[in-house]
Amino acid sequence: MINWGAMTEAQILLFALILMRMISFVVSSAFYGASSINVSIKVLLSIMLSLVIYPVVRIGNVDYLVISNEIIGLVIRELIIGLSLGFLTRLFFMVVTMVGDLVSMVIGLSASQMFNPLMGTNGNVLDTFYSTMGTLVFLSVNGHHMLINAIAESYKLVPVSSLKLNIGPFAEMALFGQTALMLTVKMCAPVIATILLVNLGMGILGRAVPQINVLVTSMPVTIMIGMTVLFLCLPLMTLEMNGLMELTAERLFSVMKSL
Question: 154: helix, coil or strand?
Fold first, then answer.
């Protein structure tokens, strides 16, 4: 138990720094930071996790920092670390959302818009479908536990009581967009290839039989074949999402070790 009445200034500072990193991580993380979750719940979760982690965090040289002018620097450092780690956890849902956008654009359903509660924005039907399926996969592999474990491990790998911060991993984070785009195209490849062949066939049919209105006929055919391929590839999509989840966890912990 924490004896709040007997806490020193150094211990209060340590708890405040832990809370700063925790709040910034929870607010920017993929699952706990969803806009559909109330802000008061996010703050309460951050405080509860900070209370759990506080007894096992190293104090280090906080006693010296209490009387120094480095407190503001420490707070900024903790906010940067928390926001960076929270951003990395969004790699999984970023790819899933881009897959839904690309598939809907290829099939021809990009005009239908509906609210996506996970991302907090309006998206098309397939975008919401893929986000929902990604959330189910995320929960099935205990991704929410992985997020809590990651922020807990960050206090060991990146100590609170030091101003040292390696900025090298931040340059690598810029390359994650390239990785996300490659994974998106890979997961959309069956649908894209099928629709390409369908459009090629409809083009040949239009040249062979000019009486057929290919522009009107191709739309329902494209949607029907695209949705069929989409549902046939759902088991493969689930496997790809599991691999994407492992990649997200690997990148997250590798960046923490390098900070």
Answer: helix
φ/ψ of 122, rounded to 5, equals -80, 135
From residue 176, alpha-carbon distances to 25, 139, 230, 247 in Å are 18, 23, 26, 11
Residue 61: pLDDT over 50: no
| Structural domain that includes position 216 | 4-258
How far is the C-alpha of 129 from the C-alpha of 35, rounded, in Å?
Answer: 18
The Cα–Cα gap between 58 and 54 comes to: 9
Q: How many domains does the chain have?
A: 1
Measure the CA–CA gap between 235 and 190, rounded to whole angstroms: 13
DSSP string, 32-53: TT-TTS-HHHHHHHHHHHHHHH
pLDDT, tens digit (0-9, with 9 covering 90-100), for 163-188: 676 776 667 777 777 778 888 888 88
Distance CA 98, CA 116 (A): 13
Question: Does residue 145 carry a pLDDT above 80?
Answer: yes
